[in-house]
Design brief:
The chain is α/β, with parallel strands linked by helices. The protein has ten helices and 18 strands.
């Protein structure tokens, strides 16, 4: 079978790999769609991020959906030919954090397409994929592309849980890539009263408005755009920081009101300095938000019930054999939001 393999920065290849057979409790999937994520781009552009570096060839991809080809023994509730969203989160369920219900912090996590451990955890961008049955959430009524959006949506649903009470709150979102836009959709679904989006590109900000933001500010062309929100120690109750940029975090903290909550989703690679005197004086709460686990099935359910619409975020779909052009397209924030690869 063909697989999309990263060897080093800018060295992406389509290679043949062997097809596995599903064991007990597993299913064999024929991949349908896969989304190119920011972490995939970090591996493609830089060979990793922060201290995480490629040490061996690795199949990329963790935002995928597929059609069930074959079912292993002991599997129930799934049928051949069924479309499923595939969660890349594979905790061990036995370490101290799994026992405490923090599966996203699993000490033995096998998250698809991750160079954090070595040997690396191979990803899901391959024609055929064996997955554990609990990873597969039925996506009846969704397109393959929508089902593949379950993973980034789960990231933002987890962040919304980390943000706490949302009903009636004023929200600032910095960084309007797919995670920023899905945070807007999640915050609105959770009851946010006002959402202001900040980015450096007009295209992404126009998409943020389509996703439901009340106002969009381009701080590249309007450096003082957030100034009205700085009065009286700040305005916003909740900040979703989705860019991983120190400047965006500093601007967001300045615009957050006393005892507000900062949720940090963006991972830019470099460590960010915090204005701790401001954080202390305004008694701000800073919550990191990393991956997800139970939120994956919740996100699929919200999409199936038409309560969250991710279709407008999928701006481009490329054929499997055109994967390299898809990665280059995903790098272009002037015209691409979510680029997906069609495997079938």
């Amino acid at each position: 079978m063909k697989s999309i393999v990263i060897h080093a920065a800018k060295d992406l290849r389509i290679e043949d790999r062997s097809v596995e057979e599903p064991g007990p409790g597993q299913v064999l999937l024929r991949l349908a769609a896969g989304g190119i994520c920011g972490s995939d781009l970090h591996y493609y552009n830089h060979g990793g991020f922060g201290t995480v570096r490629l040490k061996e060839p690795m199949i990329l991809g963790h935002e995928v959906s597929g059609l069930i080809e074959k079912i292993g023994s002991g599997v129930s509730g799934l049928e051949p030919g069924q479309l499923v969203a595939v969660s890349p989160s594979r905790p061990c369920y036995s370490c101290r954090y799994c026992r405490e219900g923090m599966h996203n912090q699993c000490l033995n996590m096998r998250f698809y397409g991750s160079a954090m451990p070595f040997p690396h955890i191979q990803g899901a961008f391959r024609e055929m994929l064996v997955a554990d049955a609990p990873q597969c959430v039925p996506a009846d009524g969704l397109s393959a592309g929508e089902a593949a959006m379950a993973e980034p949506l789960a990231v933002c649903l987890h962040a919304t849980r980390r943000a706490g009470e949302m009903l009636g709150k004023r929200v600032l979102v910095t960084g309007c890539g797919p995670i920023g836009l899905l945070s807007i959709l999640s915050a609105r679904r959770a009851g946010a009263a006002e959402i202001v989006a900040v980015d450096l590109a007009d295209f992404t900000l126009s998409m943020a408005l389509q996703a439901g933001a009340d106002k969009a500010i381009n701080t590249r062309t309007d450096p003082e755009g957030l100034a009205p929100y700085l009065a009286d120690k700040g305005t916003f109750d909740i900040l979703y920081e989705c860019s991983g940029a120190a400047a965006a975090l500093a601007q967001g903290i300045a615009a957050t009101r006393p005892r507000g909550t900062i949720v940090q989703l963006g991972l830019g690679g470099a460590e960010m300095a915090l204005p701790m005197s401001t954080v202390t004086a305004k008694e701000l709460s800073i919550n990191g938000s990393f991956r997800f686990h139970p939120e994956f099935a919740v996100g699929v359910g919200l999409m199936r019930k038409k309560l969250i619409d991710v279709k407008p975020l999928i701006t481009h779909t490329v054929a499997f054999d055109e994967a390299l052009s898809g990665f280059e397209l995903a790098n272009d924030r002037s015209r691409a939001m979510k680029v997906q690869i069609a495997f079938a």
